[in-house]
Amino acid sequence: FGIDPAGIEFTVEAGRPDTITKEKLEMLKNLGISRISINPQTMNDETLVRIGRAHTAQQTVDAYKMARQIGFGDINMDVIAALPGEDYTMFERTLDIIRDLAPDSLTVHTLAIKRSSKLHEQKYQQSIKDTADMVSLGREVAHRMGMRAYYKYRKKYMSENLENVGYAKKGYECLYNV
After folding, report:
1. Maximum separation of any 2 CA atoms in the chain, in Å
2. Helix or strand or coil: residue 172?
3. Beta strand pairing status for 164-169 and 105-110?
4. pLDDT tens by residue, 30-71
5. Beta bridge partners of 167
6. DSSP string covering 57-91, please?
7. Which helix (H) or strand (E) holds 14?
């Protein structure tokens, strides 16, 4: 679990898969880090290029497997619903790959378009129904993985007052988020 016997959780946002190396993971493990988050956002390479990410879906899979091999027993993954150019089927593909990886927790974010962002300048519009359907699919997949929601929060500029939701298997809830 992500909590040591003294009841202390050590969590690190391991971050983008292109920044994760074996040496960094080993250092984190040796320092007593018990929970990490690996954040693909999407498992669709064309979307990763579109949103300016420097990693591929395969790098996410490789980073995740490397973290498990090094001994991390508590891994979170973050995804974002309604990224530019993504439809329901693409989001479903992302969730299928993540389900196969079997992280211990999953955060489903709703894209928030901030006023100073390029998306705002480009007047990017999300389909309200598609976004809601993607968020709902995230919940269904998390439940099928044995996870339940343990925290929610909203950000300014989120579509239709949807929210970001953290799901976790029993005993893997992140104390910081709670």
Report:
1. 50
2. coil
3. antiparallel
4. 999 989 999 999 999 999 998 888 999 999 999 999 999 999
5. 106, 149
6. HHHHHHHHHHHHHHT---EEEEEEET-TT--HHHH
7. strand 11-15
Q: Which of 30, 27, 36, 25 is nearest to 2 (CA)?
A: 36
CA quadruple 50, 51, 56, 57: dihedral, nearest 10: -100
Tokens 């239709």 belong to 160
The tokens for 170 are 């029993």
Angle at alpha carbon of residue 115, lines to 109 and 117, rounded to 5°: 70
- Measured CA to CA in angstroms, residue 140 lies from 23, 153, 164 at distances of 35, 18, 15
User: Which residue in the block uniquely carries the two structure tokens 């962002």?
Assistant: 117
| DSSP letter assigned to residue 43 | S
Spatial separation of the C-alpha atoms in residues 117 and 12, rounded to whole Å: 26
> What does 85-104 look like in DSSP terms, one character per residue?
T--HHHHHHHHHHHHHH--S
- Locate 142 and state its tokens: 């998390």
Instruction: Look up residue 83 and give its two tokens.
Output: 């990224």
Q: Which amino acid is at 49?
A: V
Average pLDDT, the chain: 85
> Is 112 within 8 Å of 161 (Cβ atoms)?
no
d(CA 46, CA 60): 14
Whether the predicted model's global pTM rises above the 0.90 cut: no
